[in-house]
Design a protein that fits this description.
Number of strands of chain B: 33
Distance between the termini of chain A: 58 Å
Helix content of chain A: 25-40%
Helix content of chain B: 10-25%
Shape of chain A: elongated
Largest interface: A-B, 117 and 166 residues
Shape of chain B: globular
Structural class of chain B: alpha/beta
Number of helices of chain A: 6
Order of helices and strands of chain A: HHEEEHHEEHEEEHE
Oligomer: heterodimer
Structural class of chain A: alpha+beta
Radius of gyration of chain B: 27 Å
Largest sheet of chain B: 6 strands, mixed
Strand order of the largest sheet of chain B: 27-29-28-33-26-32
Strand content of chain B: 15-25%
Largest sheet of chain A: 3 strands, antiparallel
Number of strands of chain A: 9
Radius of gyration of chain A: 26 Å
């Protein structure tokens, strides 16, 4: 039997609507139920909030208990703002969770180098800390030209981040201010 | 947002201006549509006919950068046609205040202008004060020096012909918008405004929004369900990151960053703690010393004592009057003033105005740290177009971080709801949650300061409270509790005992003596003895207004609509009895507020018999005068919004005054800062925007195949008329050029853009999305911010990326 796309949509639509028999004369409901079962069977549901605009839509991530990986994402039907609906970006949450283009190792680019090198966290954080201390100590202004105490680090600046959680934002600003930074900016300014 | 997303459904008129909500905040339209189905008119004012326009009942085109002319015309319409809500203005705004004799406005300039310094002396805009220390008022609103009359005079120039000649909006469309929106000036109706970067990214950004705030006050729309001033914020946690002070001018909780002249906490508190002589003013900021002391206690723990002013001297001090904003930061980086740069979850090589200046600036650093999920134009700037890596000395560290479903914590949406997120999987490979990176990095820094006995000023580094780890990992709950705040000793407040280590139940209990800590007073109550309120998922809605007060938690103190005491009359009865946000109810002789959490529990201004209640407070509790500011003498560019052209504009004259552009706009002077007005080489207005399928610079979305397939590359939209003039066909490659940069983009020739008639001349506008960059996809185009100017609003210093001048031409193959 040759099916046109329109026929197929009619059939699959009928199956979703729960009619006993499909246009092809047999019951598609068990097939439909089975296919849905495969995706999220035994998966753990975790509510989250979309990472894009600030409407704050609820998303449910389904995590496989076997692999620990997110296998499916969908709008959170209980969420009072979005009631399960999502825009194109929110609906693509799955591709953030499962994406082979993610950077998975620390990368370092040496002065005047043409390529990245992979590095360990341990080496990297120690090296960054050395540079932070060197820049801070070299650029630290204890008193300004008028002789007023300012205790300020003038040589390091920071931008970011509306992409962090609140708890990370607060911790980040505490670190920056303890170091004496005053050039602290982020997305809200642009 | 003063209100919140669901509340849009309660509106009697929805104005969307400076926003393309249907495409950029798509789910907001769930609530716009709900209101529309109930009969609420939806108005869209925008340079482009977008999907928001397609859904609107009224669409009015506007030339980008002329919103104050448009809205000023609405103010005139409201006053001329007596559509304003007089009782509201007289009692809840400064409309009745008498302005001092020094204030004047002449030919586009307010009093106190210093042309050399490009600055106003704002003291000339002060109110006339009575002997009792309170502003002189005339509640009849008839005194010629009262704010309302000055407002009327100011906007008398904004007649339909003049406005239309500036904005390019046909007069019929102006009238239709004015009539429809002004109909909400009756007590039982409320209109709302939904705006976004279309208003903020201008050299008059703050005044765009103030202009609408004035309209909302004239019509009595603040505090009401379905009303308010609602910024549609573009990043999922840009509200929270602002609340937590990741900005040069504020510490967490909107506490100003201390300046050098404020050497002691006592001096700081004196300067920033307002006083009011009005017994009816709650003057909430009088509590500021409690919030500062509690913040310092949370940062420095036991080291912070009353004797050492809670380590106030450890906080870095900015130079008085100097700005350290985004534009200043990159300007100084360009001028080689910094050695190190932390770039956490942001892509300034594409997101900053005049992006090439930023790209050049990064080559002047010794080192930079980039934290992100995917490769991006900032991290890889050293191998960007036209850059020879061998010439770039900057060391770059790229730290891969977790995505949002790979960690636990809260984010705050536009409606101020703090919502908790859960971890659904581990980050891939060696990527780490940002919180862990921050903690581990600071541990390494601190170790170096411990080792080095000669280290520079180590005290704040060594003493910062940093115990946010459980089982070796960053513990978001631990930080969330610190943000909420603890009692630091056993105390008794109003006969109630609290133990050291108890979570503070509400910011009303924070103290200035060191007996409480709170990382951010606004979030006090978010995480209490009852648990993590941000994680709540109960869906009760007893008011039927969609407040959902037990779903998540919102600041302040779970008040879903702020300024809600302005939603009732002087006796506490709702202006709109059908949609009462709060209501004063008397039972057995005892009165109480029902509904939303009121802006303070004081009784209404009047008793039932109409006599004044001296225990009451005015509704705008954050303002020292207790009322909202129609006359805004805190803004740097004037107490009333005035139309000025964008710094790059297509006209040589401003018909409203001799002042063409904002006289105090932020401008910069490097070789990279080129501005051209009325230059025949750049004859068309350019603007930037977003599409549904991408987000910001595309730093995440360009890497998602589903989204990239839908919107694969940069385009430039133009009218059929302009395309014909330039010999460009739909689908051709076009070159778009500004004084600062050049881009190749696919031409989309469309009826959605139409030429404007401005001062009798035909003016064309083209638009580009700013989601693209050279790293990915191949041949997807580069950032539209290569074209935009690094000039800014004088108050916020947000760049003017929504109106600038360009040329377009067909790319010769």
């Amino acid at each position: 039997m040759k099916l046109t796309r329109r026929d197929f949509l009619k059939i699959s639509g009928a199956a979703t609507a729960g009619l006993a028999l499909s246009g092809m004369g047999f019951d598609l409901r068990p097939v439909h139920a089975f296919s849905m079962e495969l995706r999220t069977k035994d998966a753990k549901e975790s509510p989250t909030i979309c990472c894009y605009c600030a409407v704050g839509c609820g998303i449910i991530c389904h995590t496989s208990t076997q692999t620990g990986q997110v296998v499916y994402t969908e709008g959170d039907a209980d969420h009072p703002i979005n009631g399960g609906s999502l825009c194109a970006k929110g609906a693509a949450a799955y591709q953030i969770a499962q994406n082979d283009r993610r950077i998975t190792k620390v990368l370092y680019r040496a002065p005047n180098a043409s390529e990245w090198e992979e590095k360990s966290w341990d080496w990297t954080l120690k090296e960054i800390a050395k540079r932070v201390k060197k820049s801070r100590d070299a650029s630290f202004t204890a008193k300004n030209e008028k002789g007023l105490v300012v205790n300020r680090c003038d040589g390091i600046v920071s931008v970011g981040s509306a992409a962090l959680d609140n708890e990370e934002c607060w911790t980040y600003q505490a670190m920056l201010r303890a170091l004496g930074l005053v050039y602290i900016e982020h997305q809200a300014r642009i | 947002m003063t209100n919140h997303w669901i509340d849009i459904a309660n509106s009697d008129c929805i104005l969307i201006m400076g926003s393309n909500a249907a495409e950029n905040h798509p789910i907001s339209f769930r609530w716009v549509t709900k209101a529309q189905l109930a009969g609420t008119p939806v108005i869209h004012v925008d340079p482009r006919f977008t999907r928001t326009s397609a859904k609107a009942d009224i669409y009015a085109p506007i030339r980008s950068g002329t919103d104050i002319a448009f809205l000023g015309g609405m103010i005139k319409y409201i006053i001329d046609n007596n559509k304003y809500f007089k009782e509201y203005i007289a009692n809840y705004t400064n409309g009745a205040f008498i302005v001092g004799d020094k204030f004047s406005f002449k030919d586009g300039l307010f009093s106190g202008y210093d042309a050399e310094k490009r600055k106003y002396d704002q003291s000339t805009w002060a109110f006339k004060m009575e002997a009792n220390g309170m502003p002189a008022v005339d509640k009849t609103l008839e005194d010629p020096r009262c704010v309302f009359q000055l407002l009327k005079t100011h906007y008398a120039r904004y007649d339909l012909d003049t406005v239309s000649s500036i904005t390019g909006t046909p007069k019929d469309d102006l009238l239709k918008v004015y009539e429809t929106y002004a109909a909400t000036g009756v007590p039982d109706k409320a209109g709302t405004i939904m705006y976004a970067m279309g208003w903020t990214q201008h050299t008059v950004g703050v005044q765009n929004i103030r202009c609408m705030a004035i309209i909302q006050l004239l019509l009595g729309n603040m505090g009401a369900a379905g009303g308010g001033v609602n910024a549609l914020r573009g990043e999922s946690n840009v509200q929270g990151s602002t609340d937590h002070g990741l900005l040069f001018h504020i510490l967490p909780g909107y506490l100003p960053t201390p300046a050098a002249s404020l050497q002691t906490l006592a001096e700081y508190n004196k300067k920033y703690t307002p006083t009011s002589n009005d017994p009816l003013s709650a003057n909430w900021w009088q509590n500021r010393p409690k919030y500062v002391a509690s913040l310092l206690k949370s940062m420095y723990g036991d080291a912070a004592t009353p004797e050492n002013e809670f380590c106030y001297s450890w906080l870095p001090k900015v130079e008085d009057g100097k700005t350290y904003s985004w534009l200043d930061l990159f300007d100084s980086m360009y001028q080689k003033q910094f050695s190190g740069f932390l770039c956490w979850g942001q892509n300034p090589a594409c997101s900053g105005a005049n992006a090439d200046k930023n790209r050049d600036a990064m080559a002047n650093l010794d080192w930079m740290v980039v934290v992100n999920l995917f490769e991006n134009e900032t991290a890889s700037f050293w191998k960007g177009p036209g850059v020879d890596p061998k010439q770039i000395k900057t060391e770059v560290f790229f730290l891969p971080c977790a995505a949002y479903m790979e960690k636990e914590g809260s984010i705050t949406n536009s409606g101020r709801w703090g919502q908790w997120r859960y971890k659904a999987q581990e980050p891939p490979g060696e990527a780490l949650p940002d919180g862990d990176i921050i903690i581990e990095l600071f541990n390494e820094i601190r170790a170096l300061y411990k080792e080095d006995k000669e280290a520079t000023f180590p005290d704040p580094v060594l003493n910062l409270k940093w115990d946010y780890i459980s089982n070796g990992k960053f513990d978001a709950h631990s930080v969330a509790k610190a943000i909420n705040g603890y009692f630091t000793k056993d105390v008794t407040i109003q006969d109630k005992q609290y133990k050291k280590g108890d979570l503070v139940p509400s910011f009303a209990l924070l103290q200035d003596d060191g007996s409480t800590s709170s990382g951010n007073w606004l979030y006090c109550q978010s995480y209490t003895a009852d648990g993590n309120n941000m994680a709540r998922r109960e869906k009760d809605d007893p008011t039927g207004l969609g407040l959902y007060s037990k779903w998540s938690w919102c600041w302040p103190v779970n008040r879903r609509i702020i300024y809600n005491r302005a939603s009732v009359d002087l006796k506490g009865n709702p202006w709109n009895p059908k949609k009462p946000v709060i209501q004063w109810v008397v039972e057995d002789g005892k009165g109480k507020w029902t509904g939303d959490v009121p802006d303070g529990g004081w009784p209404p201004l009047q008793n039932a018999d109409g006599t004044a209640n001296d225990k009451s407070k005015l509704p705008f509790i954050m303002k020292p005068a207790g009322v909202a500011s129609i006359f805004g003498n805190g803004a740097k560019d004037g107490p009333f919004p005035e139309h000025y052209e964008p710094l790059e504009c297509p006209v040589e004259k401003n018909p409203l005054s001799a002042q063409l552009t904002n006289p105090v706009a932020a401008v910069y002077g490097t070789a990279r800062d080129i501005i051209k007005t009325c230059d025949p080489r750049f004859p068309f207005v350019g603007t930037t925007y977003r599409v549904t399928e991408h987000w910001q610079t595309g730093v995440l979305t360009r890497w998602l195949p589903w989204l990239l397939e839908a919107e694969p590359q940069l385009f430039v939209e133009m009218s059929e008329q302009l395309a014909r003039m330039k010999g460009i066909n739909n689908g051709d490659m076009a070159i778009v050029e500004s004084p600062r940069g050049k881009l190749e983009a696919v031409a989309i020739v469309t009826k959605r853009l139409q030429p404007f008639t401005v001062l009798g001349q035909e003016v064309h506008l083209v638009g580009l999305p700013w989601h693209y960059g050279w790293t990915w996809p191949p041949d997807g185009g580069d950032s539209a911010n290569l074209l935009t100017p690094a000039v800014g609003d004088p108050n916020t210093r947000i760049p003017e990326t929504k109106a600038f001048m360009v040329n377009v031409s067909k790319k010769e193959v």
